[in-house]
UniProtKB/TrEMBL annotation:
InterPro entries: 3-OHacyl-CoA_DH_NAD-bd, 3HC_DH_C, 6-PGluconate_DH-like_C_sf, ClpP/crotonase-like_dom_sf, Enoyl-CoA_hydra/iso, NAD(P)-bd_dom_sf. Residues 305-481 form the 3-hydroxyacyl-CoA dehydrogenase NAD binding domain. The keyword Isomerase applies. It catalyses: a (3S)-3-hydroxyacyl-CoA + NAD(+) = a 3-oxoacyl-CoA + NADH + H(+). GO terms for biological process: fatty acid beta-oxidation. It is found in: Peroxisome. Pathway: Lipid metabolism; fatty acid beta-oxidation. One of its GO terms (molecular function) is isomerase activity. The lineage of its organism: Bacteria, Pseudomonadati, Pseudomonadota, Betaproteobacteria, Burkholderiales. This is 3-hydroxyacyl-CoA dehydrogenase. Residues 486-578, 614-699 form the 3-hydroxyacyl-CoA dehydrogenase C-terminal domain. The keyword rRNA-binding does not apply.
Length: 704
């Protein structure tokens, strides 16, 4: 049963009981209507309490039902809310923990609302590429005022319940907020019954939010201001502007017309590729934390104390993650000077955050106090997790892990931040390979959301479960990767860069390639990115590749650039020219000439390459390698690959990641394009992943 119905001395209590978050799926909706009708028909019932069991009042409409027949099957959420609002007996929504989206819209249909403090109240639909579609854009402005409501609707951000109480209550709330009639410190269920008895004794009709007026001295001006601000940031997302349109429709034309307009917008938005992509990312993030053969009840190890080896940019950034979550960190370096520099950089980072007003000065000192700098491995003996962030060379890792094996306590997790090396080889340097795992953070490690968790062949399940849980605590999106060169992200990006370089040989210039892929939505094209990271880094990796894969065909054009010392921004020039103190990438005549003469030497005929070809070759290179990664079981599902690219590589969120994008284009078309490129110069770089052809033949995609 998705809804429970009980009565308590003249009060009917309808309790949503649809774990995990009381989503308003069809059976829950039907249960609510049934409950309201039952209460109407029971003469002993004078009032109705609507509440939620478990960890939410309601997390909103059931997103999994979107674009399925269930979403529109009666009773729809509109019908449910109309039934609640139309009840002759007063309905009191009693809210705790979470009231989001349709959950809040349902509560807005009730005659009264009471809440426990600390409940998260939000209309987060915009984060899913849609707008509140069950009256939220109409009732919230009437409940809490135009400005506060528009802020909530357009940002989707949660507001604590105590901030939304009527002025004059124990929790005064926002100046014009009239969302909650009471904010209850004690037992919410008891308070709801008492409140219900009080209002149940009153004669009707009971107040409806829809009947309130939206009062604002200059509503049109404010709406225009909001529209201008949103247009600048919402570029590729239609949702936020539609939210404003819907609120405006209600202000100008009244509740019913506003509601109808909102409904039309919802139906249109829920079918957009942007909404599909955002929902894919929502579920992809949650799915990534689930590992097929590691049950969710796997016991985890206690992580109370962390150690980080290496206080450079990476090590310092990694340490900050744990400190931010209140976990003490022992930071180890080999030399005092490097240690002091590392701790100094962490302090500077926090000072910058304080300056921006995002951290209180006293919190800075509290965080710094969680760091214990040391030069001695003996100080790591109490650590529950040790993350190594030293130089990326197997010999160096060997020394570190052998030493860790001597000093770390039994059961400590030993993690390597390697971005390419073989985690199994690293684990073999210890006598406890089951405790070794890869934790590949992305730079800057205190900012980037992605954490690739590399599972070695012997990594214990409880180690994986522990690291995944910890990742959530330090607010990372963790994705599990098997062992292979470059893991998921870097293995794929190599093929992307390979194509970018071939295209320079064949006729493109760096600025054209970057512009085309940035227009597609990438945060930064491959050449600007390489100039930022340092071209010497890729050069070092390629040199290793040439030895390991002598048969693999690479363009040597980037080596030519590096031979001239143009390593990127740090040397004042790379693929582009840079001016002192200016990060703008200026197309470089010297480089463009170098590229043209390189083509001549290589006997490559330069031709005009279209932007469409650039995008296809770059993105399908990712897709093709992603497919191979899935075939080999390096990633367990396509959405994991998408999460890596959305959170670590600047792939446009509104396209949902490379694998979802391939599904959107259709694998049949992806296959045809790859076969076409494979038959052209440098076509040997395209070895079609068999699964693309297999899925295309079945008319399927990576995501079903
Ligand atoms: C809407 O309401 C539209 C209406 O305006 C109009 C309709 C006509 N549906 O996040 P968690 C699942 S749109 C289906 O790990 P937490 C989630 O996938 C909706 N499933 O928990 C996960 O499943 P699994 C507007 C949902 O405690 C499990 O619940 N609402 C939904 O960290 C636990 O989730 C939103 O956008 C849902 N609505 O956080 C709210 N919500 O265990 C979206 C959750 O299989 N939800 N699940 O992986 C959230 O923000 C968080 O889940 C919440 C709980 C804060 C509620």
């Amino acid at each position: 049963m998705a809804v429970d119905y009980t009565t308590h001395d003249g009060v009917a209590v309808i309790t949503l009981n649809n774990p995990p978050v009381n989503g308003l799926g069809l059976s829950t909706r039907a249960g609510i209507v049934e409950g309201i009708e039952r209460a109407q028909n029971d003469p002993a019932v004078k009032a109705i309490v609507l509440t939620g069991a478990g960890k939410a009042f309601s997390g909103g409409a059931d997103i999994t039902e979107f674009n399925t027949p269930k979403a529109t099957q009666e009773p729809t959420l509109h019908t449910v809310i109309k039934t609640v609002e139309g009840s002759a007996k007063p309905v009191i929504a009693a809210i705790h923990s979470v009231a989001m989206g349709g959950g809040l819209e349902l509560a807005l249909g009730a005659h009264y609302r009471i809440a426990a403090p600390g409940a998260q109240i939000a209309l987060p639909e915009v984060k899913l590429g849609i707008l509140p579609g069950a009256g939220g854009t109409q009732r919230l402005p009437r409940a809490i005022g135009l400005e506060a409501a528009l802020n909530m609707i357009v940002s989707g951000a949660p507001v604590m319940s105590e901030k939304l109480a009527h002025p004059g209550l124990a929790h005064p709330g926002l100046a014009d907020s009239g969302l909650f009639d009471e904010v209850v410190e004690g037992d919410l269920a008891e308070a709801a019954l008492a409140f219900a008895r009080k209002v149940g004794a009153k004669a009707g009709p009971h107040p409806k939010v829809r009947d309130r007026k939206i009062e604002h001295p200059n509503a049109a001006g404010f709406i225009q201001f909001a529209r201008n601000s949103v247009a600048a940031v919402a570029k590729n997302f239609p949702g936020p502007l539609k939210c404003i349109d819907a609120v405006e429709a209600g202000v100008q034309n009244g509740f019913d017309k506003g509601l109808a307009f909102e409904r039309d917008c919802f139906i249109a938005l829920v079918q957009t590729p942007e909404s599909h992509a955002l929902r894919h990312a929502f579920f992809g993030e949650r799915a990534a934390s689930k590992i097929p053969d590691v049950p969710s009840d796997t016991p985890v190890r206690d992580i109370k104390q962390v150690a980080v080896i290496g206080a450079g940019t990476m090590g310092g950034g990694i340490a900050m993650n744990f400190i931010n979550a209140g976990i003490p960190v022992t930071l180890l370096e080999t030399k005092q000077e490097a240690l002091d520099r590392g701790v100094g950089t962490i302090r500077k980072n926090y000072e910058a955050t304080v300056k921006k007003g995002k951290l209180k000065p006293e919190a800075l000192e509290q965080r710094m106090a969680l760091i214990t700098p040391t030069l001695s491995y003996d100080d790591l003996k109490n650590a529950d997790l040790i993350v190594e962030a030293v130089f990326e060379e197997l010999g160096v890792k060997e020394q570190v892990f052998k030493r860790l094996d001597e000093v770390a306590k039994p059961g400590a997790i030993l993690a390597s931040n390697t971005s390419t090396l073989d985690v199994d080889k690293i684990a073999a340097f210890t006598k406890r390979p089951q405790d070794v795992v890869g934790m590949h953070f992305f730079s800057p490690a205190n900012v980037m959301k992605l954490l690739e968790v590399v599972r070695g062949k012997d990594t214990a399940k409880d180690v994986l479960a522990t690291v995944m849980k910890l990742a959530k605590k330090i607010k990372k999106t963790a994705v599990v990767s098997g062992v292979c060169d470059g893991f998921i992200g870097n293995r794929m990006i190599e093929q992307y860069i390979r194509q970018a370089l071939f295209m320079l040989e064949e006729g493109a210039l760096p600025a054209q390639v970057d512009k085309a892929i940035e227009k597609f939505g990438f945060a930064m094209g491959p050449f600007r990115m390489s100039d930022l990271a340092g071209n010497d880094i890729g050069w070092a990796i390629r040199k290793r590749r040439y030895q390991e894969h002598p048969d693999m065909h690479y363009s040597k054009i980037a080596d030519r650039l590096c031979e001239t010392g143009r390593f990127g921004q740090k040397t004042g020039g790379g693929w582009y020219d840079y001016k002192a103190g200016d990060r703008t990438a200026y197309p470089s005549k010297v480089v463009d000439e170098m590229i043209t003469s390189f083509s001549k030497e290589a006997n490559a005929e330069r031709r005009k390459i279209s932007d469409e070809e650039i995008v296809e070759r770059l993105v399908f290179a990712l897709v093709n390698e992603g497919a191979k990664i899935l075939e080999e079981g390096i990633a367990s599902k396509a959405s994991d690959i998408d999460m890596v690219y959305l959170t670590g590589y600047g792939f446009p969120l509104y396209r949902g990641g490379p694998m979802l994008y391939a599904d959107t284009v259709g694998l049949y078309n992806v296959e045809r394009a790859i076969r076409r490129y494979a038959s052209r110069p440098n076509g040997d770089a395209w070895q079609l992943a068999p699964s693309i052809a297999e899925l295309a033949a079945k008319g399927r995609g990576f995501n079903g």
